[in-house]
User: Which sequence fits this backbone?
């Protein structure tokens, strides 16, 4: 059962490595959007510290959105999605593999670069640790929930805009608890509560979203 | 044995066919004929279970394919009109990845042998985006060389092939039928398949 998940992850990572421009452009988008805020707002450390969690998280949501439309579209266009649907495994497992691979190339790099960007906002060391941890915990949920939207809009013209309209509202809980964790740390309350809720959202969405996406993909393949 | 009973296909507002049925035994080939838009591809997609029929039932080894799910798909090899190969990967990587995802055993030597048979020796390590249309089709067809599954569903397998490759593919399909396999295919070309019983079904 896990053989198919690892096979899909292996294939998708290999494809991503051959097309590194995609990974790099989403990462640079994240870096630039986050860096524009301190430049636009000006050097007021108190204000920047207050804005930091929200800005970083909103930028992370948007950066994730960039790579979502292609999650299934490439496989759909060249016919490999059909072959994946005909493999003797539940399609949900295949999508689980694709979601994990998507997180490894789009969510993980964001978490790794986030502490560096946090310094621009004068965040304390504690807050930087919590920020990194929160993005690490929350981004798999973004990939999982995003997969449902990507599957529902597969094959539609102008699906990219529709995808954002569908998926961004569903990202709100992740945004609230992700930014809340850092806020709570900055104000000295401790972010553990927010982080555990974030972990719960991630487990639920990575566990269930692939099966919902698989149902949507079957409709798209008819 | 593959059986179809009383199948009906509606695409959009149009009914493409109704009351269609056939029975295919081991070693038989069903050749679907019909003009463009007569529902050949729709029928193939029904047979592989991706398109639910409006009415009727498809049975594999006596049980409905819908109820069998993964067991049916483990007996099935489908080649669509899209090649299902990744442009960024090499032919060898494509074959090995496809086999792994379909849960088939394929060693690297077998894959190299298959690529040699389709005339891609020396190009195993070139990304598929640098291959011609016909060569890409050959990468897709290389899957069939080592394919041991009993039911092959082939959508226009001879498109984009030169005459040598057409004869080679006809030989591969004959070999499959001789081993007791079954095949359903569509083609607009006149192709001579030397072995097995060939049955024709005309749509529209």
Assistant:
């Amino acid at each position: 059962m896990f053989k198919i998940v690892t096979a899909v992850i292996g294939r998708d990572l290999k494809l991503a490595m051959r097309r590194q421009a995609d990974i790099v452009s989403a990462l640079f988008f994240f870096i630039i959007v986050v860096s524009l805020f301190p430049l636009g707002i000006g050097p007021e450390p108190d204000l920047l510290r207050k804005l930091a969690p929200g800005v970083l998280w909103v930028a992370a949501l948007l950066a994730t959105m960039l790579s979502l439309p292609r999650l299934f579209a490439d496989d759909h266009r060249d016919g490999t999605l059909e072959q994946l649907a005909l493999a003797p495994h539940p399609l949900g497992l295949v999508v689980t593999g694709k979601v994990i691979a998507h997180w490894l190339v789009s969510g993980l790099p964001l978490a790794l670069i986030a502490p560096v960007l946090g310094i621009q906002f004068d965040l304390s060391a504690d807050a930087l640790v919590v920020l990194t941890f929160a993005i690490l915990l929350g981004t798999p949920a973004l990939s999982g929930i995003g997969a449902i939207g990507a599957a529902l809009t597969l094959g539609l013209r102008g699906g990219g805009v529709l995808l954002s309209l569908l998926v961004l509202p569903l990202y709100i809980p992740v945004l609230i608890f992700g930014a809340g964790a850092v806020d709570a740390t900055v104000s000295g309350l401790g972010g553990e509560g927010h982080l555990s809720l974030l972990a719960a959202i991630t487990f639920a969405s990575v566990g269930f979203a692939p099966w919902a996406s698989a149902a949507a993909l079957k409709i798209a393949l008819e | 044995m593959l059986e179809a009973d009383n199948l009906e296909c509606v695409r959009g507002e149009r009914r493409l066919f109704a009351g269609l049925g056939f029975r295919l035994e081991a070693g038989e080939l069903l050749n679907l004929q019909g003009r463009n838009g007569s529902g050949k591809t729709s029928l193939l997609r029904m047979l592989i279970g991706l398109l639910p029929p409006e009415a009727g039932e498809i049975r594999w080894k006596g049980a409905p394919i819908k109820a069998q799910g993964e067991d049916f798909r483990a007996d099935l090899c489908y080649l669509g009109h899209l090649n299902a190969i990744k442009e960024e990967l090499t032919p060898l990587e494509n074959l090995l990845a496809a086999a792994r995802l379909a849960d088939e055993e394929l060693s690297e030597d077998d894959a190299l042998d298959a690529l040699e048979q389709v005339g891609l020796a020396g190009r195993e390590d070139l990304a598929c985006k640098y291959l011609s249309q016909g060569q890409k089709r050959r990468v897709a067809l290389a899957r069939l060389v080592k394919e041991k599954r009993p039911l092959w569903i082939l959508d226009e397998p001879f498109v984009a092939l030169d005459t040598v490759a057409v004869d080679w593919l006809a030989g591969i399909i004959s070999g499959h039928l001789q081993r007791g396999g079954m095949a359903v295919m569509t083609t607009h070309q006149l192709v001579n398949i030397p072995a097995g019983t060939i049955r024709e079904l005309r749509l529209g």
Q: What stands out?
A: Chain A touches chain B at residues 3-4, 7-8, 10-11, 14-15, 18-19, 77-80, 82-90, 94, 218, 221-222 (CB under 8 Å). The mean pLDDT of chain A is 92.
